[in-house]
Amino acid sequence: QVQLVESGGGLAQPGGSLRLSCTASGFTFSEYAMSWARQAPGKGLEWVSGIYSDGTDTYYANSVKGRFTISRDNAKNTLYLQMNSLKPEDTALYYCNANILSRNYWGQGTQVTVSS
Asked: How far is 47 from 95, CA to CA, in rounded Å?
């Protein structure tokens, strides 16, 4: 079955960096676009970034553009999100997502907290 496991979250200071990873299994990772989304306390789910199956095209929400970089390693079945210049408003539970045959799959999420 499809499994997505996020890791790399934690506590960072404003202006700091974190790198999230999402390890995928149960499907042919290299054939599907992937994305990251987040949910801040008391707020709805926000799409953050997406990447094509071969990594050639990437997309970002305006709120993270220029600070976050999405990438993937198809040989390792792993999706990444490099987050730089972190802000307190980036505090959220971060999820990776795969849309496979019109069905959305999500991991359990990894918590990112930005605070001094």
From this structure: 9
Tens digits of per-residue pLDDT, 47-99? 999 999 999 999 999 999 999 999 999 999 999 999 999 999 999 999 999 99
Note the maximum CA span of the chain: 42
DSSP-assigned beta bridge partners for residue 36 = 49, 96
Q: Six-digit token pair at 41?
A: 């306390």
Query: Per-residue pLDDT averaged across 6-29, rounded?
Result: 98
d(CA 89, CA 104): 26
Amino acid at 24: A
Closest CA to 20 of 86, 82, 68, 65: 82
- DSSP secondary structure code for residue 39 in this structure: E
